[in-house]
Each structure stands twice: as structure tokens, then as C-alpha cells.
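for the record, two folds in this file. i put them one after another cuz i was lazy. first one right below, seq on top, C-alpha cells after. the second one comes after a little note so u can tell where it starts
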Amino acid sequence: MKVLTLSSTIFFTNFLHNTFYREWIYAWIFLLLTTTSLFVHYGLFENDKEIHNQMVYLDKSVIASIFFYGLYLYWKSLSKKSYYFPLISISIVIWFYIGGYFLNKYCFDSDKEWGDMYHATIHIVGSLGHHSIMNEYSKIT
């Protein structure tokens, strides 16, 4: 099994966590991310480039939705207490993905195995960052 296919399954834990706290929008977006990420990384539509490209676009759109909804929940849960793990995790994700794109490193390393390991790392770090957001948000609801 490909490392990115395996690491994509971690988003299902966010679906479960958010379902437990009845944060339905966040839960369903994570279930959609799990699905799109598995489709993209498993290569289900690799033979049809048009469908594959549409799936990649959908995956990135879902990622943006999760980012903005997570930011919204983070902002709502920032009463008098600051918590930094989500900020650290998003910084790592941005550095490995966007920084890596411009530097041809990290997720975009010329050695595909190393690139995939960095990409799997952003799956894990991003998931944990969103778990921490939900953990803090659940304390105020």
C-alpha cells in the first residue's frame, strides 16, 4: 500500500472525533477529505487524467474548506487562553507544502519517496492540529 494512501486514512479519526462532539459540519468535511484524499492517492482515476485532475481540484477545495472552518472554530475557542499547537501545525504544513513547492523540496522533492514521506507527515500533523482545535472548541460548547 502506498504511504499516502495509508496516511490519508488518519483524517477518518477527525471525522470520528468531530462526530463525537456533534460538530457535524467539521465531521462531514473530514469524511469528504478522507474520501477525496484516498481517491487521489490511491490512483483510482489515474488512467483518466481529466477525472483525476477534477478529483485533485475537489481535494484541494475540501482542504481549503477544512482550513477555513478550522480557523473559524480556533478563533471562537480563543477566549482568554491561547493555544499554539494549531499554529505550529499549520506552519509546518505550509512550509512543507507551499515552501517545498517553491524550493523543490519536502513534498516536492525530486526523490518521490522522500516527497511522499513529507506529504504523509503533513497529513499527520494537519490531522493532529485539527484534533487540538476540536479539543479546545469542545470545552466551550
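(here's the note) second protein begins now
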Amino acid sequence: MNAEVKIDDFTISVVPSTMIDLIWDKVKPHLEKVSDKSDDFTIESTYNRLINGDSMLLTVSRGAEVIAVNTVHIEVLSSGIKTLYIGLVGGDELDIWSRQMLQFIEAIAKDYGCTELRGMVVRKGWLKKMQPYGWSEAFTTVRYKIGE
């Protein structure tokens, strides 16, 4: 699989774990937008997963400017299904690059022998945006915070 695809004026790339430190300052603000809406992860844990190679960083850029980021990792479910899990998506201009990013991520999944893509969304609006591409709701996570 090619680690970079040029689409119109955007480039979608896989960033090697050894290069995360070089691009981190451009990536972190996009991840912080997501972390402000969820308490399931921290910026530090995301950074460590990327550096250790436990997750892959995908970027959408226009020239030297990072427009958006995605993190993905492989997960084998207890049922045996091998999935490429899209952990985080943050950035701008989603409507312009989302279809191509999905194709890029699907190609990565096939390279790793995955049979499906999975991900979690912070807001219901994401599901509405992804339905035209074939995504459907599989689970709904609810939570109850325990007081002191």
C-alpha cells in the first residue's frame, strides 16, 4: 500500500512512528479538539500509542499545513473478527476529504487482513455524516458517573 495519496490539493499520509515528534506540534491541536469532547483518552496516552507504534497517525495536509488527523489501530475482537479501529478524528474541512480518507483507511485495513472498520463517535451528528458511506450504528455506549 502506498503511504501517501494526493487528492486535489490535499495529501493523505501515514506518519511513521519515528516521525511523530517532528509533526506533533501540528497534530496536537486537532487532537485537543476531540479530547475537549471526550474523557476516554488523553493527549499523552495518544502520543505514547503513536510513538510506541500501537496506533498509526494519518494526516490530511495542504502543503505544510495539517488540516486533519486520524488515528487507527488493529484490534482482534473476542469473536475473532479483525478490525481496523478508527480511534480519533479531528480537523477541518471534513466534507472535502472524508470520502478519500475512508478509501485510504479501507486500503490499510485490507493490507492488514481486517474484515471491517470500527470507530466511536463523540456526537450523533457523526453517524449522520458517515451513513452515506455505508456506516451503521453497532452499539450505543451510555455512562453513569458515580458521585462521591
